[in-house]
Amino acid sequence: MSSSDAPEDDQKETSDESPNISDADAFKILLEMKMKKRQKKPNLPSTVTELVTEEGSKVFVVGTAHFSDSSKRDVVKTIQEVQPDVVVVELCQYRVSMLKMDEKTLLKEAKEINLEKLQQAIKQNGVMSGLMQMLLLKVSAHITEQLGMAPGGEFREAFKEAGKVPFCKFHLGDRPIPVTFKRAIAALSFWQKVKLAWGLCFLSDPISKDDVEKCKQKDLLEQMMAEMIGEFPDLHRTIVSERDIYLTYMLKQAAKRIELPGASETEPRKCIPSVVVGVVGMGHVPGIEKNWNTDLNIHEIMSVPPPSTSSKVVRFVIKATVFGLVGYGCYRVGQRTFQFVLSMPTTQNCLQRLTEIRPRH
């Protein structure tokens, strides 16, 4: 063995003999780094509401406007300041795709409402709920077109920032949208559904970025919400109040104490309070504050009522209309095709020959 190989072998032996760090020690080191980065007195935006659980966990709720650059900055700053253990956003599994789409794709998706999307919405949520979902998408598309900004930017920023924080989990905190739509439709009478659909169809008022930023003021938002609800209090209950309860429940679930790994298997594990950042629309913040110290049961608000008589009638009318149009279309096409074939010279000659042939006795 040459002398030049000796140092290399010594280095290998030294590296092999160096003690390995256990998973528990690595976890503690990274956790300590995270704790040092976490601000004891964080400098938070005015849109943040701090809540505390009975176990001492802290929840920082960022109230946002869904079409706002300022809200994006508020979310980023809050996550960087508090270094959370969990980030909860006002999304469900049916809308999670917007987290990984870029702004350009989302703008295109929001503006394009076609028959395929309508069929998918009806298949997923039923006729009435699907139609209502498309009408609300039309409202979102209207705002998107007015502002040139795709919705949910604050959720995408939260997703990105959560990935930069060690051991930070990312939770979806909103009730599944099919449940919300079905409960909302069931809460309205037939004429209320017609009136609401009419109002959404003819929405065309211009919206400015200043209007969106003003939505971050609680008093103005509550006033706007009261005007929007009007004669649809049941709609407010299902779309806002029930989701306030669901979001509060999910935030409290996310704020459970964290169990730290012990130095050995025999050593009891230590639990510490967690830190959570919730990213929700500003309109949900008062409801979350109201429900925070209440024992919540979400089973009732997760149930889907059976279709009403009016829904069954509308579904039957729509199906009958579609089948009727298809049947009439086939009839018209068949009639024209038959007339065209009869008018062809070849067909005329064949018919003439057939009439000239007499049966043999």
Low-pLDDT stretches are: 11-15, 218-224
User: Average pLDDT value?
Assistant: 76
Structural class per helix/strand content?
alpha/beta
As a percent range, the share of helical residues equals 55-70%
Distance between the termini: 117 Å
Using only CA atoms, what is the Rg?
31 Å
Strand order in the largest sheet: 1-2-7-3-4
β-strand number: 7
What order do the helices and strands follow? HHEEHEHHHHEHHHHHEEEHHH
Q: With helices defined by DSSP (H or I, 4 residues minimum), what is the helix count?
A: 15
| Overall geometry | elongated
Largest sheet: 5 strands, mixed
The share of residues in extended strands comes to: 5-15%
Short description:
It contains 15 helices and seven strands. The protein has 361 residues and is α/β, with parallel strands linked by helices. Helix 8 runs antiparallel to helix 12 and helix 12 crosses helix 13.
